[in-house]
């Protein structure tokens, strides 16, 4: 549905040229919720703004719903943009217009009659749960309600694609969850393709189907969300996953922790499990069968892309060959096992 082909973007600034995007190719399939995650300054906003040509790439091709946007005339681009809704971190509502009139704006600009506007807006108000707020002004709304208005406004022209630029970054965790649920509902009920950018792994964890990591204007990793959590490939991806699973070994062992093996040290394993393995007592079985002891350093269960996943950090005590047997046992039972260090 959205295709970036070899996109680069260079900004000319007072301090010289800034390469914000460096040869990015990404494909967002129809019906997908696609997350792009990265630290501040990675190029996320620039990338998402290329999807509707709010920002024109210096090089490359942007295709949305089969159209090569850079080849369109300005009139054709205006029409094409009706297929592309967008919401922002700070909502961008007009303070002097009511909820109803804010949502009506794109329809009025498209020259729709008052009756056509009303018949579009009423179901949208219901969809976003703001039926009783249609005559309120933005200043009378909470952050979550403002973002609901912005979502309804973005949906008014019945787009095929919704772009979300840090849409929940100004909201508290509970409100974030309710907005993410709304986006997931819209994705399911309307079949809307969603491209979102975020610096929060929790957003990716709860609603995205696929994810790409952006670093210094480049895509350094791309995967379906489950595989991404199960086996992140780059150090940055590992960092994002660790943050999402709140990984932080207990303080009193962290000073004993080392990266390299030394005689007498015990290996520290990072174990990730998903699906059936979550409900199997594999750790106690491994302990019994392989004659080792597990010391749990950290444990966390998360729902990732609708599936339960477990993240466990343990050190294993026992004879060296027993320790190896235990690792092999866990791997044989489809657990993802990685030695992340050693403790003495
Ligand atoms: N209009 C601009 N002019 C000059 N530099 C810009 C402009 N917009 C963004 N940049 C630079 O491009 C890089 C990527 O910015 P941005 O896409 O906003 O990152 P992110 O959204 O990931 O924080 C940054 O180094 C930023 O300073
Ligand atoms: Mg940004």
Q: Can you walk through the features of this model?
A:
- This protein has 344 residues and is of the alpha/beta class.
- The protein has 2 domains: 2-243, Rossmann fold (3-Layer(aba) Sandwich); 249-343, ACT domain (Alpha-Beta Plaits, 2-Layer Sandwich), CATH 3.30.70.260.
- The chain is built from 12 helices and 15 strands.
- Strands 6-7-8-3-9-10 form a 6-stranded mixed β-sheet, sandwiched between helices.
- Helix 3 packs across helix 4 (114-127) and helix 11 (282-290) runs antiparallel to helix 12 (320-332).
- Bound molecules: adenosine-5'-diphosphate and magnesium ion.
- Magnesium ion binds next to helix 1.
Number of domains: 2
Question: What is the third-level CATH name, the topology of the largest domain?
Answer: Rossmann fold
- Secondary-structure element series: EEEHEEHEHHHEHEHEEHHHEEHEEHE
What is the CATH top level name of the largest domain?
Alpha Beta
| Number of contiguous helices | 12
Under the CATH scheme, which architecture of the largest domain would be assigned?
3-Layer(aba) Sandwich
Mean pLDDT: 92
Distinct ligands, ions and cofactors found in the model: adenosine-5'-diphosphate, magnesium ion
Name of the CATH superfamily of the largest domain: P-loop containing nucleotide triphosphate hydrolases
Instruction: Please give the share of residues in helix.
Output: 25-40%
The tally of beta strands, per DSSP, is 15
Measured distance between first and last alpha carbons: 53 Å
Sum up the overall morphology in one term: elongated
- What's the alpha carbon Rg, rounded to whole Å? 24 Å
Strand content: 25-35%
């Amino acid at each position: 549905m959205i295709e970036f082909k070899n996109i680069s973007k260079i900004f000319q600034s007072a301090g010289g040229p800034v390469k914000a995007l460096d040869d990015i190719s990404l494909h967002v399939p129809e019906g997908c919720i696609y997350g792009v995650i990265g630290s501040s300054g990675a190029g996320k906003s620039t990338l998402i703004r290329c999807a509707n040509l709010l920002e024109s790439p210096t090089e490359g091709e942007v295709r949305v719903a089969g159209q090569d946007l850079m080849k369109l005339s300005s009139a054709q681009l205006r029409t094409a943009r009706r297929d592309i809704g967008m919401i922002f971190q700070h909502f961008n509502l007009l303070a002097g217009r009511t909820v109803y009139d804010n949502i009506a704006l794109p329809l009025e600009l498209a020259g729709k009659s008052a009756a056509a506007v009303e018949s579009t807006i009423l179901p949208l108000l219901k969809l976003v749960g703001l039926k009783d707020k249609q005559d309120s002004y933005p200043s009378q709304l909470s952050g979550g309600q403002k973002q609901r208005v912005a979502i309804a406004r973005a949906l008014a022209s019945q787009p095929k694609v919704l772009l979300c630029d840090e849409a929940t970054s100004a909201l508290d965790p509970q409100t974030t969850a309710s907005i993410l649920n709304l986006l997931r509902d819209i994705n399911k009920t309307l079949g809307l393709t969603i491209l979102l950018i975020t610096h929060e792994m929790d957003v990716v964890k709860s609603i995205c189907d696929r994810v790409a990591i952006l670093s210094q204007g480049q895509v350094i990793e791309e995967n379906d969300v489950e595989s991404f959590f199960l086996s992140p490939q780059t150090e940055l991806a590992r960092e994002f996953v660790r943050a999402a699973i709140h990984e932080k070994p207990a303080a009193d062992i962290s000073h004993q922790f080392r990266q390299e093996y030394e005689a007498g040290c015990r290996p520290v394993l990072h174990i990730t499990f998903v699906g059936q393995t979550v409900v199997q007592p594999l750790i106690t079985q491994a302990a019994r069968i392989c004659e080792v002891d597990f010391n749990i350093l950290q444990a966390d269960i998360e729902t990732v892309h609708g599936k339960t996943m477990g993240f466990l950090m343990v050190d294993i005590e026992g004879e060296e060959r027993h320790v190896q047997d235990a690792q092999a046992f866990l791997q044989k039972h489809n657990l993802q096992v990685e030695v992340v260090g050693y403790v003495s």
